[in-house]
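DM between two lab members

TW: hey, do you still have the Phage virion morphogenesis protein entry open?
JB: yeah, one sec
JB: this one, 148 aa:
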Amino acid sequence: MAELQNVDAWLAALLANLEPAARNRMMREVAQQLRRIQQKNIQRQRNPDGSVWEPRRMTARSKKGRIRRQMFAKMRTARYLKTTASADAASVEFASKVQRIARVHHYGLRDRVTRNGPEVRYPERRLLGVNNETEVNIRDILLRWFIG
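TW: and the structure you got?
JB:
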């Protein structure tokens, strides 16, 4: 525990050396890199830990050979996957319009397919998360800012 306090103090000293505007730019860069990684995971249809999402259910309407769009193709765009950054924090979140849909799929909750349609339990598909690759990328960005 004492080691973590020492690391915290060391990082606080490094952050204090940067001006607030520089910290803001650094956090913006971190947030943008986080969004790129999350978009790549959604495009590959994988959880942050690398496991594959459960595929869509086959229905009577699905036809053999029919080309279907990838899941969450629009949700991964910058229009819906927003970044926020301040001098103290960086985050990636879904815009308010699609937050409900993202939450239902992320946690595997129940929701209605259409307004008056049947209620369905969706499989858990982790849309956002942190893995080793994410940590390494963020560490590289921070080191580049502190060294440079």
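TW: got it. Strands lie at 81-85, 90-94, 110-112, 119-121. The chain has four helices and four strands.
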